[in-house]
Amino acid sequence: MDVYEQLIRKETKLSLIGLGYVGLPIALAFARKVRVIGFDINANRINLMKQGIDPSKELGPESFADTDIKFTSDKTDLKEASFHIIAVPTPINRHNLPDLNPLLSATRIVGSILKKDDYVVYESTVYPGATEDDCLPVLEELSGLKCGTDFKLGYSPERINPGDKEHTIKTITKIVSGCDEKALQEISRVYELVVEAGVFKASSIKVAEAAKIIENTQRDVNIALMNELSMIFSKMQINTYEVLEAAGTKWNFLRFYPGLVGGHCIGVDPYYLTFKAAELGHSAQVINSGRSVNDGMGKFIATEVVKQIIKAGKNVLDSRVLVMGATFKENVSDIRNSKVADVVGELRSYGIRVEVVDPYASSAELEKEYGFVLREQPGKDYDAIVMAVAHQEYLDLDEDFFKTRLSAKGILMDVKGVYRKSIKSIQYMSL
Q1: Yes or no: is domain 3-203 CATH 3.40.50.720?
Q2: In a designed cystine with 35, which of 13, 120, 139, 431 is the match (CB 3.0 to 4.6 A)?
């Protein structure tokens, strides 16, 4: 009997390894259709999920209702499953090189419990070839089984967008791939249980891996162009957002905007592609150039603020700056690879006293990761305010909010251009 039939008859289980912002929504979606084992090595996170709490703060208690799921940090529980989905992070190290340790660790866990006729599907973002060249040998060695004849392998890249309640696993077309035709068909049937938008069957695992990684690389390069244009336009004293608004009236103009590019997707994935390209003897000039521009935006923003503080006749060493927003994007609690930390660090390098507020981020996590803490509320008499992350709570702030918190000749740096049409009487700048 096929694994799909076994799953829908609840004669076996589906496992999800890695219950972060990607894995948990997928696990809960499947748990409304089949029996699921949700596995994570972090026992504290598992205890929260057993109480119906999402540690990533993306899902509410209602998401856990009416689900058939067993949360565990005991890998022996995975033996009850026949269809394993691996959705662990794939970060980069301090040298901007791929760090496959979490992926290979998860692979070793699955390999140690893998049995005949099981399926293993990867969702983690990797460079083309990683699933078959890096992960598959580990599965075969630890299990003593052979891919294709004893078990099946597949790749179906995640497309979860943190903070996005519209584009979910149900509504986004799912790319699927398999090691052979039978694997492709069976993996497709399983994902079709939860993906209402349907699946796209890629011709190979490598094609599916490549499709995922260029999604974020394309965005990275386009945002880098906008960031570079903002640097040019700032020298011309032109507002970039006004330029984009005008250019956007053309039907085929692509709508990208400047800003800080962090997080664990756009700010990371291109490095996986450039690493593989370099391994093959190709220098990815356009991609590397985009990465350089985007990685330098924190320093650029901070430097522009310092210039304006000096122009206002103030002593930089006596200056105070408020940074609003610390997460990697709006309306999420995730601080991983947040480029706001670059802004804070650069401002501090000038001797400026920097204070940070954020309605979503954890002060303890920020202190551990970046060495600064949050204020509960903004203070007053700041020489500059940097509105770095456009959280929903900040969108309706009026000019009086900033005027009452800025000192004389104070500056508002509005990174995302949120207030460009409403600020009239204070010094204003944006990208």
Answers
A1: yes
A2: 13
Check if 179 is active-site: no
Q: CA dist 320 to 119, 306, 346, Å?
A: 56, 11, 13
Q: Above 70 in pLDDT, residue 229?
A: yes
Tens of pLDDT, residue by residue over 373-399, are 999 999 999 999 999 999 999 999 999
Exactly one of 135, 147, 179, 265 is catalytic; name it. Answer: 265
| Angstrom distances, CA of residue 309 to CA of 80, 320, 411, 418 | 62, 10, 8, 21
* E runs forming strands in 101-236: 119-122, 152-155, 174-178, 199-201
From the candidate CATH numbers 3.40.50.300, 3.40.50.720, 3.40.50.2300, 3.40.50.150, the one assigned to the domain spanning 223-430: 3.40.50.720
Contacts for 246 with CB less than 8 Å, ≥ 6 apart? none
Q: Report which DSSP code applies to 420.
A: T
Q: Tell the residue number behind the tokens 């208690």, with chain if given.
A: 61
Outline which parts of the chain fall under CATH 3.40.50.720: 3-203, 223-430
Global pTM exceeds 0.85: yes
